[in-house]
Amino acid sequence: MSTITSNRPQNGSLVKAFALLEFFSNQKKQWGVRELSRHIGANESTTYRMMATLESLDILYKNPETEKYALGLKLYELGNRVDINASFIHLTHPELERVALEIEETVHLGILRNNKVLMVDKVESSMGLRLDSSVGQMSPIHCTGIGKVLVAFGDNMITSFLKSYDYVRFTEKTIINKADFDKELRKIKKQFYAIDDQEFEQGLICVAVPVFNKKNDLVASLSAAGPSVRFKKDSLLEYVSILTKGANAIQQNIGNYKI
Q1: What is the pLDDT confidence band of residue 242, given thresholds at 50, 70 and 90?
Q2: Which H, E and C letters describe 188-237, residue by residue?
Q3: What are phi and psi of 109, to 5 degrees?
Q4: Burial grade of 173 (CB within 10 A; 0-12, 13-18, 19 or more)
Q5: DSSP conformation letters of 93-126
Q6: Does 5 fall in a domain?
Q7: DSSP secondary structure code for residue 256 in this structure
Q8: Rounded Cα distance, 131 and 55, in Å
Q9: Is 1 within the bounds of a domain?
Q10: Residue 243 CB-density burial (10 A; 0-12 exposed, 13-18 middle, 19+ buried)
Q11: Looking at residue 24, what is its pLDDT?
């Protein structure tokens, strides 16, 4: 499990550059210099120099008409070279397909990276309605089923980080303070699954379970998500049972693998 906290030597400029890149998401794909500098509370000229440098490296692309920046092709190129979880996904993907077939909703596999959820695999629902999610997408931890699971069963480093965590509100159901989130985590530990009931996106429900390796190290979280009009809340325990069966199968497949 990875967090921002580290005792290893770090290059401050690189850390700031990657922190800046985290703000480019499916929800906000383009940023202007002034807009982003205000959002992150940084000096406008400093933000400009950083974004211009990233543009010169093709990490960011600047739209000449709007003068706004978006993620560049260099990241796509580098991403295709990365074998980050090739062996892991090779072992887990068949189980995601089996779970999706049985549960009839979209299934995701996520891990924790820099105190956010990183989606590493996805199998679409056979029901036809596709979700606006993608492999490589980063999501918040406090309002997603996968994020809650990864924190609930994670180590003390992430728990400590939550003391200064920014509980951003996405919907009227989003948990927005540490006391309520701590209560939620205790509930998740007891029941061994987490629910995101329209907390991140209106109309979307997700249920998630932990995935351990054979040493019982937490390696990921497996979830099923679907529209609230179709997601059968009275079948929640059935969903959990199917996901848990899939998580147990993954545990057998990955052995002692640890991300």
Answers
A1: very high
A2: HHHHCCEEEECCCCCCEEEEEEEEECCCCCEEEEEEEEEECCCCCHHHHH
A3: -125, 125
A4: middle
A5: HHHHHHHHHHH-SEEEEEEEETTEEEEEEEE--T
A6: no
A7: T
A8: 31
A9: no
A10: buried
A11: 87
Contact 142, 177 (CB under 8 A): no
Indicate if 191 and 236 belong to the same structural domain: yes
User: Of 202, 210, 256, which is closest to residue 227 (Cα–Cα)?
Assistant: 202
DSSP letter, residue 70: E
Domain housing 212 = 83-254
Joined tokens for residue 198: 């329209």
93 within 8 A of 124, measured Cβ to Cβ: no
The three-state secondary structure class of 138 is strand
H or E segment to which residue 62 belongs: strand 60-62
SS3 of residue 139 by DSSP: strand
Name the average pLDDT for the chain: 84
Confirm whether 6 is domain-assigned.
no
pLDDT digits over 55-103, tens only?
988 889 888 888 899 888 777 666 655 554 566 788 888 999 999 999 8
The model's pLDDT over 132-177, given as tens digits with 9 standing for 90+, comes to 666 778 889 999 999 999 999 987 656 666 777 888 999 999 999 9
- Is the domain of 87 the same as that of 174? yes
Residue 195, burial from CB neighbour count under 10 angstroms (0-12, 13-18, 19+): buried
Return the number of other C-beta atoms located less than 10 Å from residue 250's C-beta. 25
Say yes or no: 146 and 197 in one domain.
yes
pLDDT digits (tens, 9 = 90+) for 29-41: 899 999 999 888 8
